[in-house]
Amino acid sequence: MRWLTALWVLVAMAGAVDQGLAADSRYPDWPCAQAKVPEVSLAAVWNGPALDDATSKWKDNPKVSALIPRLAARRTPLDQAEKTIVEFLSESAAEKNERGKLLFAGLFETLNAERTTVMNGLERITRKQREAAEKVRNDTLTLQALQDAPAKDQAKIDELGNQLVWETRIFEDRRRVVKFVCEVPTAIDQRLFALGRVIQQEME
């Protein structure tokens, strides 16, 4: 009965998590404490010259399009990415402004897309967590009914008990992952702002 009590505690936790998900009614599946900002506006991260057609031409520049994935990747240390930008924009003073606009246009599109992918993934996990919480509740009620039955089927009790332990473990693992991944959109925003600032400084 001790593990059954523990399962009821997890069920209660699942309910509490579920109730806290819709802090903003506009985004009922958003699980993070941070407010959901669906897209980063260009004005929030770029004070440089108008990008004009750089937003559509950056992919046509082989050097820029090859550099963007490396600069955007979070596994590339920020200071290393900033140094790479400085070196790249110093190669040709005459083309510095044009290169700078192409570089930021590529980073803005790439990091915004990555950010959207992460946020969509978080909301998918939220929907799975709701389903998992409901299944844990239902299976716990079934298990209690089996426990209370006059003629106990111990094999079924053991099977469902083991299943519930596995289900709750998955639920808790996902909850921990969500807490970690909730920091990623903010990290992407900060990276985009920092790299944009370096590009602007080099263009001045």
Question: How would you characterize the overall build of this protein?
Answer:
This protein has 204 residues and is an all-alpha fold. It has one domain. It contains eight helices and no strands. It has helices at residues 2-20, 42-45, 54-57, 62-72, 78-90, 96-148, 154-181, 184-203. The model has no long low-confidence stretch (mean pLDDT 86).
Number of helices: 8
Please trace the helix and strand order, writing H or E for each element: HHHHHHHH
Principal-axis shape equals elongated
Helix-strand category: mainly alpha
How many structural domains can be distinguished in the coordinates? 1
Largest sheet: none
Q: What is the number of strand segments?
A: 0
Radius of gyration: 25 Å
Summarize model confidence as the mean pLDDT: 86
Topology record:
Blueprint (H helix, E strand, L loop, with lengths): L1 H19 L21 H4 L8 H4 L4 H11 L5 H13 L5 H53 L5 H28 L2 H20 L1
Jot down its keywords.
single chain, 204 residues, mainly alpha
